[in-house]
Amino acid sequence: MGKVEGHDLEELNSHVRTCIAIFVGLLALTMITVSVSYLDLPVPAAISLALCIALVKGSMVVSIFMHLVSEKEIIFWSLSLTVIFFIFLMAIPVITQEDIIKQTIEVRH
Amino acid sequence: MSGVEIPYVSSPRPDTGLVNAKLGIWLFLASEVMLFGGLFSAYVLLRVGADVWPEGSTILNVPLATLNTVVLISSSITMVLAWASLVRLDFNKYRLYNYGTLLCGAIFLVIKYIEYSSKFHHGLYPSESTFMAIYFTLTGLHGIHVIGGMLVLSYLCWPGSKMWKTEPIRFTGRVEVAGLFWHLVDLVWIFLFPVLYLM
Amino acid sequence: MEHHEELPFWRKYILSTDHKVIGIQYALTGGFFLFFGFGLMMLMRWSMAFPDQPVPYLGFLFSESGGAISPNTYNTFGAMHGTIMVFMGVVPLAFGAFGNYVLPLQIGAVDMAFPKINAASYWALFVGGMIMLASFFLPEGPAKSGWTSYPPLADIDVGAGQTYWLIGMVFLITSSLLGAINFITTTIQLRAKGMTFMRLPFLVWTQLVTAILLLLAFPPLEAAAFLQLMDRLADTSFFLATGLVVSGQVADISGGGSPILWQHLFWFLAHPEVYVLILPALGIVTEIIATNSRKPIFGYKSMVYSLIFLGFMSFVVWAHHMFITGMGTTMNAFFQTTTMIISIPSVIILSCLFISLWGGSLRFNTPMLFALAFLPMFGIGGLTGLPLGLSSADIHLHDTYYVIGHFHYVVAPGTLFALFAGIYYWFPKITGRMMNEVLGKIHFVGSLIFMNLVFFPMMIQGLAGVNRRLYDGGASYADPAAVIDPGFYSHVANVLHLNKLMTYSAWALGIVQIFFLINLVWSIKKGKKASRNPWNSTTLEWAAPSPPGHGNFDGPIAVYGNPYEYSVPGEERDFSPQFEPGGHPQSQKEEI
Q: Rounded to whole angstroms, how far apart are CA atoms C233 and C213?
């Protein structure tokens, strides 16, 4: 029996195997990120490293567990729009916060 | 119920290749991303604007949070296995894995409860500092999502599983969609953990 | 296909999952809140024209202040007027009602993709609305920090009104999110055979883009609402800066927060929200102009691309509401530029609509009159926005009546006219009867005159420097005895007499609406019977019976042509409906 309800069983088995590999990878990365945090790296380096590991872990979950890699075009479209707006939302308030008027002007009546 | 039959509930529409629920859940997840995006944006703005920002590990319990990370990742894999069991037409195994997911969710919440109560015990309330405030808000909202996900999974485990007898393909789709939400909850935690505890 | 099960009343009309019933529920709720918000405004206008004088007839409502509207009450009314009109009036009508009723019909769907979620979306709105209404009965009254709820004022506001506002908003946001998911999925998944994206009626396109805006812009406000709830309930300081002084005392807070953070999160929603208010209106007007000019819409494709660009750009203009928060010149320049860019697609859409009229055989029925009036009114609203989008001009205009005049031109004679037009236009589809033309025309002429008399003087006052949110309409502001520099505000004093004109016009506008209400109720039972396609229109909703039954169409429906094929050369009739195979020489070349 090759197919159950339109799913290829071979494909499913290999997908499950990938998922288990990803699971192990996620556990390993968790251990890495925690142990790195005990190394007392300088703050900017620690932040970048922690965020990079989180990004890798996140993309593993999204692409394999949520099988986005094999998803349809329309979903990519809606998600890429979300990603763009997400970046706007994260970046612009911070940039605005950095770019503020610091000079004071004396007002005379 | 009503006499109207909505198309593409269990079989995909040919030109988009999607069933309705699949598109719907991804749109919902997109809005969730923006919800947590707003909160992360608040976190960054508060941190950038703060004179001093405590290192999470000095206040929060990193080992417990690491354990919680492991618990949530495990729950994600049981979720995948539950769905795969349904595709293999093995309903009993589906239920078994679903119990596993629910158990992991419960363990996560218990650990969270222990963390919270130890904070309260030491007089660390959200009003203590903006760090504690954003910690409680982010983890609290995430916890609500865990509870919401568990409710959905419980429904699919018990009363909602009647559909397996009548419409197995649609039911498998429902489990898959619930799984997508559950993975998002996991995903949010993957970012919350380093941001709050390790940075 | 039809089962003809007789459902009990509460299943058929209350907990229905039929998109048409839900659309009507949205319409009734939105309509109620529109009139409620309008009522608040009429009371506020009394206070502005006749400050501290008892309100005639309704003075008993304000007994503790001797029948007059106190500044505190005025503030609550101002905040609730804005909230109600935007989130509970116009959005439920433009998006919830027209989207729910018309969108599935126009794409040839039997219902929404998720009927139960659709019902849940309506009931979330209902609960949110009830929470907002309930807050009027609180001892300290409802929220009073403006519809924008800026902290620190909103954070430290006494009484539970602001908390109710936030909880209500969470429900309203949830409602919009569920609706948005449903609309997008329905449009993408449930289009009839042959309904390609470039054959979608423009209204469907506008609803689709609106839904995307709601989906991605509302969650940050939800996040902000949670943060403000934490500030109010758990004493956090997300929006409270260190060293905040309240009533002369240093507040007992941890501090470290940023009031600007709220403004960012709020306007990240609220600017796209402006387009949520206006886009469905543009869609409605396009349908009506195409039908009643008997001509294809000019530049349909450029309108669609403009619309998509408009939706995208609306996410990167929000800080033009924040020019005077101390933003630096780099960011000012950035937001000023994006704001100028976003006006281009709006102008393209409006120009296409104007050009569509050229050489058409115009029919001046009530929906068309409202649609025609929409064009210049929205034009005025849009053009008066440009000075506000320029950071230097905004320093003078910010928070004056000019702003109020500007956005009311967009939303009131703009969106509301389109909504009226839509009601007159689709009423025969919904009820099977036409609305009365004479009453409709009285309603139109009266609304057009009085809307302008209410909102145009605001521009004059605003340019003279009258601030918004003043319970006495600026009287104490122009009082030479009350200001440090007498004469400095004399230019304000010269425009205050306009307050009375605006107030009388607002009440007259209210009286004119009675004609509309009478027409609406009378026509349900006594209106002229309407056929399936009373306007000889081309889009799919006119293929369904009036009113459409359960499942909408008589049978499977297919689409054979573009949405607005009017006056096709060589055809017998001057319209070639999308749902009929013949009469589409242009579209025949394309794949069906």
A: 30
Nearest-angstrom CA–CA distance, C189 and C491: 59
User: At CA C181, angle to CA C178 and CA C184, rounded to 5?
Assistant: 145
Q: Across all residues in chain C, what is the average pLDDT? A: 93
pLDDT recorded at residue A1: 34
CB C503 within 8 A of CB C547: no
Cβ contact A96–C212 (<8 Å):
no
CB C590 within 8 A of CB C199: no
Question: Minimal Cα–Cα distance from C539 to chain B, Å?
Answer: 21
* ipTM (interface pTM): 0.96
* pLDDT, mean of each 10-residue run, chain B (199 residues): 78 92 96 96 92 90 96 96 95 96 98 96 93 96 97 96 93 96 97 94
Q: Is A23 on the interface with B (CB under 8 A)?
A: yes
| Beta-bridge partners for C400 | C467
- Rounded to a whole number of angstroms, the distance from the CA of C87 to the nearest CA of chain A is 22
- Residues of chain A with C-beta less than 8 angstroms from the C-beta of B33: 82, 86
Model pLDDT, residue A109: 62
Angle between helices C417-431 and C437-464 (to 10 degrees): 160
DSSP label at residue C472: T
DSSP line for A20-86: HHHHHHHHHHHHHHHHHHTT---HHHHHHHHHHHHHHHHHHIIIIIT-GGG--HHHHHHHHHHHHHH
Q: What is the mean pLDDT of residues C425-447?
A: 97
Q: What is the pLDDT of residue C555?
A: 87
Residues 32-51 of A with CB under 8 A from B: 33-34, 37, 43, 46-47, 50-51
Give which of A14, A17, A23, A16 is closest to A61, Cα–Cα. A23
